[in-house]
Amino acid sequence: MKTSALPLSILDLCPVTLGSTPRDALRNSLDLARAAEQMGYHRFWVAEHHNMVGIASAATSVVIGYLAAGTERIRIGSGGIMLPNHSPLQIAEQFGTLESLYPGRIDLGLGRAPGTDMLTARALRRGRTDGEDFPQMLEELRHYFAEPEPGQRLVAVPGAGLDIPIWLLGSSTFSAQLAASLGLPFAFAGQFSPDYMLAAMQGYREAFQPSDKLQQPLAMLGINAFVAETRDEAHYLATSHQQSFLNMIRGERGLLRPPVENMDELWLPHERHQVLSTLAGTLIGDEQTVAQQIADLRERYGMDELIVNSPIFDQEKRRDSYRRLMRAAARL
C-alpha cells in the first residue's frame, strides 16, 4: 500500500560554475525554477549567502522577485533570509512588496546565522554577530505583518495585514524549539547538519503549540540529492559538491567545479571523513535506490515535506537529477 504523496521542493543557491558568471547562474536558476514548476515541485527557495564567489543569491529578495516574475504557479521563497543581517522593517516591506506582486506564492524562511564569515557578518550587521536577539527581531517582524492597530505610527507598506507564511530554519535545535513554541512551520538544514536532524525534528513535533497560523506541526527536511541513470554516475556528479566543501574546510573559496572521477586524488583521509560526515544528509544513486532512501528518511524523521539541494555542475544534468528525483518519490 502506497503512503501519501510526499511534497518535494527545491533549495537553490544559484551556484556559479567554473567558467561562468553570476548572470549565468541567475539565468540557470530561473531555467530550473520553470522546469521545477512543470515537474510538479511545490516550492523553489533561494538562500542568502555573502562574500562567496560561487553563490549568486546574496540579494535574496531581488532574486525571489526575478524568479517569481518568470514563473506562474510554484511558490517562491527564501531558505532563508538571515534576519539579523537586516532590519525587520526592511524585510517586512520587501516581502510585503513581493506578496503584493505575486499574491499567494511567497514564502519567508528565516534563519539567524550570518550566512557568511565573521568579517563579512560584521560588515553586514554593524553590531552583535551572535544572533541571540533573533527571537526579538522575529517578534518585531511579525508585528509589522499584523493588521495595524489604531494610531500605530510605524507601519510596513506594503506588508501590514498580508498573510505571508513564515518558516523558521535551523541547523540545530534552537529554531526548532522556537518554531514549536510559536506554532510556526520549521525547516531543518540536514543538507549540511545531519547530526542534529533527529533531535531537531523530534523536538519540534513534541514541543509544538498550536497557533492561529498552524494547528499541527509542519516540518520540512533539507537534504542534498544526486540522481542519475546509474549509481556510478550519481556519485560522479556529487563530486562537484564534495570539492566545494573540501575547499571550504581548507579555507578556500571558489566556483562550483566540474565533477572528477576520483576524489581520493584530491583529499586526505581526514578531509574525506570531514566532508562525507558533513554531507551525510545526501540522497545519491539511481531512481530505485533513491526511492528507498527517501522511504527510509520518511520513516526515521517523519517530515511533511522534503526540500532538496542539487549543486550539479552541468545544468542539463541538474534538471535531469530533479526529474529523476520526482519519479523516485512517486514510487513511494
UniProtKB/TrEMBL annotation:
It comes from the Bacteria. Keywords: Oxidoreductase. Its EC number is 1.-.-.-. The keyword Oxidoreductase applies. GO terms for molecular function: oxidoreductase activity. The keyword Secreted does not apply. Pfam families: Bac_luciferase (PF00296). InterPro entries: Bact_Lucif_Oxidored (IPR050766), CmoO-like (IPR019949), Luciferase-like_dom (IPR011251), Luciferase-like_sf (IPR036661). Residues 20-300 form the Luciferase-like domain. Gene3D superfamilies: Luciferase-like domain (3.20.20.30). To bacterial alkanal monooxygenase alpha and beta chains. PANTHER family: LUCIFERASE-LIKE MONOOXYGENASE. This is LLM class flavin-dependent oxidoreductase.
